[in-house]
# Entry
Amino acid sequence: MATAVIVGNGQFPKKEYPLYLLESADYVICCDGAIDTYLRHFRGRNLRRPDVVVGDMDSLSKKTAERFRDIAVKIDEQETNDQSKAFHYILEHFPDVDTVHILGATGKREDHTVGNLSLLMEYAREMRGLNCERTVFVDIVSDWSTAFAITDSCTLDVGEGRSVSIICPDNSLNIKSEGLVWPTDNVVFDNLWQATLNRASADRISLTFSHPSIALIILN
# Structure
């Protein structure tokens, strides 16, 4: 199976891990104007040409649009943002991809950050709706954190002492936890902050859902 990286137009990573994900990916997809950011940060290095530039092209410079016209895919609809356009392009055109890392999805603008992180839950719902015909793991990786969504009970190897935040939009969901300093058993998810800023007390944490639902996990 293969790995794809989506490059957004948020804060471009500088640290070794996200850059390793980018440089080792089988496919690189840039969101619209993110191609300019991508080119700027890799100037003078052995630049890898992206496989596709996806978006409505409203923030792409004319010079760059001409240079990459052969791989530019314009999608005019405004019901989804460029990150989602890129993700759905991967699902439709790269059937061998089972892992998608999204870089540059956070930073610069808080509204974009919150929106892009919440979309991870939408993507997880889509995967669940495919009845397991195809499973694609999606995360957002920055210089500070890794975020991904879960839809049911699971066990995660995170490393003792690691910061763990759980964000859930379902106030009917109860999540029993093991391996966290502050158990989430009695948390009512009536606001996004309720189970954030926790910490792992063991290398492995277990989260048990009262029913299949959705939650965002952010590891710092």
